Automatic annotation (TrEMBL):
<keyword id="KW-0732">Signal</keyword>
<keyword id="KW-0175">Coiled coil</keyword>
<feature type="signal peptide">
    <location>
        <begin position="1"/>
        <end position="16"/>
    </location>
</feature>
<dbReference type="InterPro" id="IPR050465">
    <property type="entry name" value="UPF0194_transport"/>
</dbReference>
<protein>
    <submittedName>
        <fullName>HlyD family efflux transporter periplasmic adaptor subunit</fullName>
    </submittedName>
</protein>
<dbReference type="GO" id="GO:0030313">
    <property type="term" value="C:cell envelope"/>
</dbReference>
Length: 315
């Protein structure tokens, strides 16, 4: 009996000294690359599991409609540029000469109309012509005077050239057209969906011929130099864990434990998967956390079960 009591005491002591652990899985940071437009996939340049470099093309979408929109935007830019150049150049010499000729013609017509009116007015007083003829001559003279005034105003407008406000409007129209054309260039280039970072292709949900909706993930990448352990920290262990806490991550089938550091800890409890419910922890709350592993764990695949202990932690 004394020997049995001593063995139980030693076992309990060993259990008490064992650092508490949190369970989870090995994961990588995932990047979902969305479709910029709802266009058919014409090429898939990579395969699942392939390592890709930053900027490498993954999927090519149909470019016919985007090319048409780009051509139209570039044509509007050229049109706006030509219109602005026309405003800067001002009216042509020929237009000014034509306006001067119109002034001379209007002046001659006005002189003739006034002479006609001057001739019939005394005849009207003498009742030698009808009053209607006098009124008609007076109206004609007034109309010719108005035409002469309009011709003079048109000539003056041409001689003074383009107003500053018109130039400002032309510059603004050109800037808007150039911005639209640049936006169309970006939209066109985005149809060649590329990797924003170096990583490994985890999933390609669509195939050649599919037309994913705008915003749907056409490729999923796993990125980062090393994975992290996504774990659930029991509430009893929470006071001893914070961002920056050192940890040791054990992987089933690996004799070596990997060093890591807590990089994220949720402040609110979350749903806990069944594999994280062990012993008395099954009745307690758990908090989602992530432990960043060092470069020695770079070759670990995602999905492996992990057990994390915190060296400085005590129950």
């Amino acid at each position: 009996m004394p020997a049995l009591a001593l063995w139980i005491a030693l076992a309990l002591s060993a259990c008490a000294e064992q650092a508490p652990q949190a369970l989870g899985t090995i994961e990588y940071d995932r990047i979902l690359i969305p479709a910029p437009a709802s266009e058919a996939i014409t090429d898939v340049d990579v395969r699942e599991g392939q390592q890709v470099a930053a900027g490498q093309r993954l999927v090519q979408l149909e470019v016919a409609r985007a090319r048409t929109r780009l051509s139209a935007a570039q044509a509007r830019t050229r049109q706006s540029a030509d219109a602005l150049e026309e405003l800067r150049s001002g009216p042509r010499t020929e237009a000014i000469l034509l306006a001067r000729a119109n002034v001379s013609r209007a002046r001659a017509q006005a002189v003739r109309a006034r002479d006609d009116y001057a001739r019939v007015r005394p005849l009207g007083r003498q009742q030698l012509v009808a009053d209607a003829d006098v009124a008609r001559a007076r109206a004609e003279a007034q109309a010719m005077d108005a035409q002469l005034e309009a011709a003079n105003a048109e000539l003056l407008l041409l001689e003074r050239g383009t107003r500053n406000e018109q130039l400002d409007q032309g510059r603004a129209a050109l800037a808007a057209a150039e911005a639209d054309a640049q936006a169309q260039v970006v939209s066109f280039e985005e149809l060649a969906v590329s990797a924003p970072r170096a990583g490994r292709v985890d999933s390609l949900p669509y195939r050649v011929g599919d037309r994913p909706p705008t915003g749907a993930a056409v490729a999923i990448l796993l990125v980062g130099d090393a994975p992290h352990a996504r774990i659930y920290v029991p509430a009893t262990l929470l006071p001893h864990v914070r961002v920056g806490t050192a940890a040791r991550v054990s992987i089933e089938g690996h004799d070596q434990a990997f060093a890591g550091t807590v990089r994220m800890l949720r402040s609110e409890p979350s749903y806990t998967p069944y594999y994280a419910l062990t012993g008395a922890d099954a009745a307690r709350l758990s908090y989602l956390a992530e432990v960043q592993l060092d470069d020695a764990a770079a070759a670990l695949p995602a999905g492996l079960p992990a057990r994390v202990t915190f060296g400085a932690s005590r129950p």
